[in-house]
Design a protein that fits this description.
Blueprint lengths: L6 E2 L5 H32 L4 H9 L1 E2 L8 E2 H26 L6 H26 L18 H11 L5 H25 L6 H19 L5 H18 L4 H9 L18 H26 L5 H9 L2 H28 L3 E2 L5 H10 L5 H11 L4 H27 L1 H12 L26
Parallel strand pairs: 1-4
Antiparallel strand pairs: 2-3
Helix pairs in contact: 1-5, 1-6, 1-10, 3-6, 3-9, 3-10, 4-6, 4-12, 7-8, 8-9, 12-13, 12-15, 13-15, 14-15
Length: 443
């Protein structure tokens, strides 16, 4: 018996499509706030009142006895982004435990694309900066990140009817990308390691995991344990955002019968994600962008000098060409060496447009820039200019490609939403996928 080939960018299950639509709607709002915060910071830093911006960013608060007398910019990067990575960790675990990506055949594509979308930009950066200034190569990971909020804000601006399958792929790619980025940060950007503090951080982390596995959601128990894990992780020398991912991975995803009834209630990961995603997208990421995007470029001449630096060139090349080549090549390799085929409603220009969207790097790229070069250095400022320029170029190119395909996307969108049955599921979703829409049993 011949089995049907796996469809790359197939629609997947209706449950997953509905969930992803809700997630992307929130991320789009967060992306708009991120854009606004970055624009305000950039304008303020280059205004006559730029010194005020630097004074605010560098103002130190916190208890010195705990080594937590940090600048507001550092609090945003180490503290608020831990919330962002906690939500990303919840999303990733849910995708692979209870989402469509629990099927290895479906998981192969976004994982391969994320790896290709990180490796090729890093390679481009290294090639540009070989033999460059001392320490330039420390920024090799900067162009490897994809900012899902920024990318979705671009989608909202161009009003594309991007099919659900492509949106799902973009979201999953960005989440896997974030996880790989946090691994890179933990391994390659840890200057010194306090083993005692690192081991001690496992105690509150274990206690947090024990409580959530018992489905205890009392904030007055969980929040102190999470905060203590973060403090000890920060003290250990490992970047504190790693704590957010580790905490997320302890949260159970599978649903269990609610109050002993036959129907399954929402999993705890879904509950936390619902509560914290607005805080992450609406507060944590925009505030981080505000404190990180403000770089004084020194007018047209200063901007030209920054863009002419090899660090900025490597970042722009990595974000624009590296991401497009890496994601598209990985997708082609998956289709070439497996039985997977591109969905009949899509073409390779759609993959290229999506790959260009993957070149919209911002949040994690700025975080790695700070870790690689340190605030205040010339390399730090050049890298920021490169991130802004590369992100803008990738966004413009993606807009051109996706707008050219928008008529096709509109037709696919109309097919997806019409002919809704009494159960509320459009006929476009294959009935055989209904088994994936059933509540997940515990165990």
């Amino acid at each position: 018996m011949t089995t049907a080939p796996t469809r790359l960018f197939g629609r997947g299950s209706w449950t997953e499509a509905k969930r992803v639509t809700e997630v992307l709607r929130r991320e789009t709002v967060g992306g708009a706030l991120l854009l606004a915060a970055a624009a305000i910071a950039l304008v303020w830093a280059n205004s006559p009142w730029g010194a005020g911006y630097e004074a605010l960013r560098d103002a130190r608060v916190g208890p010195a006895s705990l080594h937590l007398d940090l600048s507001l910019g550092t609090w945003a990067a180490d503290g608020l982004l831990a919330i962002f990575f906690f939500v990303a960790g919840l999303e990733l675990k849910r995708e692979f435990v209870a989402g469509d990506l629990r099927d290895p055949r479906r998981a192969a594509l976004p994982v391969a694309a994320a790896v290709g979308g990180m490796a090729v930009p890093a390679l481009f950066f290294v090639l540009v900066n070989l033999g460059g200034a001392d320490g330039a190569l420390r920024g090799w990971a900067i162009p490897s990140a994809t900012d899902i909020a920024f990318a979705l804000a671009v989608l909202a601006v161009i009003s594309t009817h991007l099919p659900t399958a492509l949106r799902t792929f973009l979201l999953t790619l960005a989440v896997v990308d974030d996880l790989l980025a946090i691994v890179v940060i933990a391994i390659f950007y840890t200057a010194g390691l306090n083993v005692t503090a690192l081991l001690l951080s496992l105690l509150p982390l274990t206690a947090f995991g024990f409580l959530v596995q018992k489905r205890i959601r009392s904030w007055w128990l969980l929040l102190p344990l999470a905060a203590l894990t973060w403090v000890l992780m920060h003290e250990s020398g490992v970047h504190a955002t790693v704590a957010g991912v580790l905490l997320a991975f302890t949260v159970p995803v599978v649903r269990r019968p609610a109050d002993g009834g036959p129907e399954a209630g929402p999993g705890l990961a879904e509950h936390f994600e619902h509560r914290l995603r607005p805080l992450s997208a609406g507060v944590a990421v925009p505030v981080f962008a505000f404190f990180s995007a403000g770089v004084a470029v020194g007018g047209i001449s200063g901007l030209g000098a920054s863009l002419g630096d090899s660090i900025a060139i490597g970042i722009v090349l990595g974000l624009v060409a590296g991401k497009a080549v890496g994601i598209t090549a990985a997708t082609w390799l998956v289709s070439r060496f497996t039985r997977a085929e591109l969905d009949e409603s899509l073409g390779w220009p759609d993959v290229i447009g999506l790959s260009l969207l993957g070149g919209i790097g911002f949040t994690v790229s700025l975080l790695i820039t700070e870790l690689a070069y340190g605030p205040g250095s010339a390399a730090f400022d050049h890298a920021k200019v490169g991130i802004l320029a590369g992100t803008l170029a990738a966004a413009l190119l993606a807009t051109v490609v996706l707008r050219l395909r928008n008529r096709r996307y509109k037709r696919i969108h109309e097919e997806e939403v019409r002919d809704v049955d009494q159960d509320g599921i459009p006929d476009a979703w294959d009935p055989v996928d209904d088994r994936r829409d059933r509540p997940f049993a515990e165990g």
